């Protein structure tokens, strides 16, 4: 409709735009209409710096269709970081949204090694939350950078707000760390440095 601001912010809800809410709640038809609207800002950040793609990637399977639509939109920033440096892939990997992680990994220009302000990459987050299938998918990417010792250190000292979950996740985390060493073809050693995974 004439006069409608498709990029208006909702200040009481983190400054999200209509596209944030449609994408984050998996409303495929609404996302489709908004993406077709003149002047739509598909990479608009809310107060935490998160874009509509980040909201969709964080939500999970209900937003898979929305993620597909956003990734197909011209000008989409697949690596847009929030104020903590976390990208859509970081959230998808850390929250166990395997299907969405696969979509993001297939997106042109995806940075599989993007680190947040704590130095955590999507691989670190996936290992921390014990997501073995996502760890395997990330390790299959030729550009993945792996430092097993660094990942282990970070899992033992997670960021504030996540430490309460650590004991319950320890067994799954250890499986992921072993899997990273096995799949990526690197030895688990104290002096491990950043290396590029080589295919066999």
Automatic annotation (TrEMBL):
Q: Which UniProt keywords apply?
A: ANK repeat, Repeat
The keyword Transmembrane is annotated on this UniProt entry: no
InterPro entries, sorted: Ankyrin_rpt, Ankyrin_rpt-contain_sf
Which SUPFAM superfamilies does the record match to this protein? Ankyrin repeat
ANK repeat segments run 14-47, 48-83, 84-117
In terms of SMART domains, this protein maps to: ANK
Q: State what protein this is by name.
A: Ankyrin repeat-containing domain protein
Source organism per entry reads: Ephemerocybe angulata
């Amino acid at each position: 409709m004439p006069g409608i601001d498709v990029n208006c912010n909702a200040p009481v809800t983190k400054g999200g735009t209509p596209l944030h809410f449609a994408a984050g709640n998996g409303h495929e038809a609404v996302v489709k209409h908004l993406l077709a609207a003149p002047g739509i800002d598909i990479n608009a950040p809310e107060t935490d710096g998160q874009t509509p793609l980040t909201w969709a990637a964080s939500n999970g399977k209900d937003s898979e269709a929305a993620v597909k639509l956003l990734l197909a939109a011209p000008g989409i920033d697949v690596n847009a970081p929030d104020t903590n440096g976390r990208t859509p892939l970081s959230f998808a990997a850390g929250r166990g949204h395997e299907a969405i992680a696969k979509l993001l990994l297939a997106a042109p220009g995806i940075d599989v090694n993007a680190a947040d302000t704590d130095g955590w990459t999507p691989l670190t987050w996936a290992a921390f939350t014990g997501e073995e299938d996502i760890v395997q998918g990330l390790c299959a990417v030729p550009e993945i950078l792996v430092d097993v010792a660094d990942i282990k250190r970070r899992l033992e000292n997670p960021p504030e707000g996540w430490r309460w979950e650590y004991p319950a996740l320890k067994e799954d985390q250890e499986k992921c760390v072993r899997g990273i060493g096995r799949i990526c073809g690197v030895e688990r050693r104290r002096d491990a440095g950043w290396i590029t995974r080589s295919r066999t």
